[in-house]
Amino acid sequence: MKKIGKDDAYPGLVPNHTHGSVDYTSIELDHVHQCLDITSPPILTSDGGHIHSVEGYVLFENGHTHYYEAYSSPAIPVGSGRHVHYYDFYTTKNVGHKHRIRGVDQPAPGDL
User: Fold this and answer.
1) Strand partners, 56
2) Rounded to a whole number, what is the distance in angstroms from the first to the last CA of the chain?
3) What are the residue ranges spanned by the domains of the chain?
4) Cα separation of 67 and 59, whole Å?
């Protein structure tokens, strides 16, 4: 099998690829948390596409943290044989509040 680097273009689905993301949560009670994560490998969908799952904890800020577990949108082609995924979810409630996390992950090879 051909070796594929993170910046390579590729037609179709690249098996076992992942995406990374770096985002901040919504502002709640005058603070935010940073969210750093790596997705699961692709989860194939019945329409021939794929999604990814993510889970983890936002970084410790303001004396606490929050857990999250969610799924991405289906793949969104961005040209040049690459794609991204959109995500929009909430953390667990802790210390009387929760945060929203939304954005787009880093591009990965494959246009499916």
Assistant:
1) 68
2) 18
3) 20-109
4) 10
